[in-house]
Amino acid sequence: MTWNLTHKVDLLLYQIYFYSLLKIGFSSLQDIGSVAESWGQTAEIEDALSFTARIPDFPEMMNRVIKTTPNDGIIDWKMVWRDPQMTWSSPEGRVIQLGDSAHTFLPSSGNGGTQAVEDAISLTTCLQIAGKSNIPGAVEVHHKLRQMAWQHDAEDYAYENYGKALRHLLTDEPFQNTDIPPRYIYKPWSIQELLSIEGEPKDVEVDGDWS
């Protein structure tokens, strides 16, 4: 279940049943300086109720569930910013990230699973084309084709563009992904850059036609 609190806060409430014990997970964009790199950081019931009290029309039924959660049963999953990853695989292509471990999404987008399926289809197609003798090359081509996945059939796209992407990687022959918004040109960025311009009186310019 998801509730939108403000433009800066997005709440996800997870109910996880494990050996008959109720676990509840909160994921919030709110930054109060308590971010910890942990999947098991707990929160107090009172803190959770204080948080939900600020959400319009938050179901009272869910507050009752929170109140009955056992001690250490509320998990506080902080959402933190990360720079885009330049590569998703190990040097030899034996280990690769798929889904939202490669493409960063807010959990509320519900897009991580979709990207994992598309990545799997793209990767298996590239491996099929390359054969067992060129697994690293297949992984590199997959990464190139999926860097900007916007609107496409992942399998067809891999079949149509594998050769062109491979020649680009081997010989630097020009190659441009077609699965991008019209007139869009990708420009590398970092979180630090975004933070450096935060609050400046200027509009954010987005290249391309995203309509």
UniProtKB/TrEMBL annotation:
GO terms for molecular function: FAD binding; monooxygenase activity. Residues 66-127 form the FAD-binding domain. Keywords: FAD, Flavoprotein, Monooxygenase, Oxidoreductase. SUPFAM superfamilies: FAD/NAD(P)-binding domain. It comes from the Eukaryota. Belongs to the paxM FAD-dependent monooxygenase family. This is FAD-binding domain-containing protein.
